[in-house]
Amino acid sequence: MRPQIVLFGDSITEQSFGLGGWGAALADTYSRKADIVNRGYDGYNTRWALFLLHQLFPLDSTRPPVAATIFFGANDAALLGRTLERLHVPVEEYKENLRKIVHHLKECSPAMLVVLITPPPIDEAGRKEYARSVYGEKAMELPERTNAEAELYAKQCIALAKEMGLCSIDLWSKMQETDGWQKKFLSDGLHLTPEGNAMVYQEVIRVFYEAWLSAGEMPYDFPHHSEIDGKNPEKAFQRQCL
Amino acid sequence: MRPQIVLFGDSITEQSFGLGGWGAALADTYSRKADIVNRGYDGYNTRWALFLLHQLFPLDSTRPPVAATIFFGANDAALLGRTLERLHVPVEEYKENLRKIVHHLKECSPAMLVVLITPPPIDEAGRKEYARSVYGEKAMELPERTNAEAELYAKQCIALAKEMGLCSIDLWSKMQETDGWQKKFLSDGLHLTPEGNAMVYQEVIRVFYEAWLSAGEMPYDFPHHSEIDGKNPEKAFQRQCL
């Protein structure tokens, strides 16, 4: 039966099946090969993510996922003393929480491909515009997230991936290699535009490919229609299903 | 844990997670509420679909899907004596195969919401253009599918839904209510444009809504972030998880 690839993260994962979203694009690429399971939780930080682990990834599962992306940090990096301080998790704890998540997944299945993704960069002007569009004059003048703070979390995410020998995607750095990344990749200074979604998709596909989890190499879950003899269809199904 | 909604069908279902696809749009709508599982099989007719039933919908499943769309007929209606006659299934058999599929799903779970979707109408000129673009001069002059033939299958699909008291979507009729349906809804005379995808999405959502399977009424699978106390997060998780 079809293997599962789980996308675990915050709102950037939860929204990944929107129009042009990176999750939907993965589902299309792995069509008939693997199920892409969205486990994105808007507003969640790594501290809250820990509460979900045993239910999302039961240790006694007979069919654990073959791969998972872990994509947190945008909420952990919300600043203290600002509107979203409720979400803040200190960067050292963020790193340790990520480590706990990875340990749990590896305990669930040592063979699981675990890919860490850093939070994206923050366009502070974009966040301010967004806050004004929602709250008008009541919007706080000081942004709830800064790019400098996001960098700290991104660096610890990459450092952990190196320590643990995991694949990783440094989205914080990658996006900023392109001029005009602020509007090109981010719709409100934080969430993804179609181009931002395309970048995440391409990076995930690249890492999966390098880790031998390429859709092209995976078998169809049932015979391709061209292999089915119209007069003796049972033959094709016996071959694959018995 | 999150309930499943299965989309079972042919290539129109398989492609439903492409850009603007109706499956991806459902996944986005039911985000945090239900998993949309794509079980579309390019080129499959109802005769071949029967071979998959026990693996896709095991009778001993402890968590069967809460709903399923059954969307076949476009291949069954391929004409005898034309290029795709290998896919042809007589219309009486198509109806009986659909009945067997529904019986299996209801045996799997009597409470499962089963929605029958008719094949879309066929734009024969569009099919011919498509064949020429792929096969050039070698393309057969006679189309492999006709709209008149598709109508027979659509009518039997709707008749079966009435006999069995099931929800149904008469896509064949619905699309043809709009002038210019041929190019507006169909990209190659058979598969869906973004507008065609939007129509299927809206029809499925409408039927689900009428059957009390509205995303708005379904619970989140874990607490919404606004319900989590930053200082005592465990409270919110105890309430929902115990």
Automatic annotation (TrEMBL), chains A, B:
Pfam families to which the protein is assigned, alphabetical: Lipase_GDSL
The organism's place on the tree of life at top rank: Eukaryota
Annotated GO MF terms: hydrolase activity, acting on ester bonds
This protein's UniProt keywords: Hydrolase, Lipid degradation, Lipid metabolism
Keyword Hydrolase assigned: yes
UniProt-listed GO biological process terms: lipid catabolic process
Alphabetical list of SUPFAM superfamilies matching this protein: SGNH hydrolase
Keyword Hydrolase: yes
Gene3D superfamilies found in the cross-reference section: SGNH hydrolase (3.40.50.1110)
Family, as annotated: Belongs to the 'GDSL' lipolytic enzyme family.
PANTHER family on file: GDSL-LIKE LIPASE_ACYLHYDROLASE FAMILY PROTEIN, EXPRESSED, ISOAMYL ACETATE-HYDROLYZING ESTERASE 1
Name by which UniProt lists this protein: SGNH hydrolase-type esterase domain-containing protein
Species for this entry: Carpinus fangiana
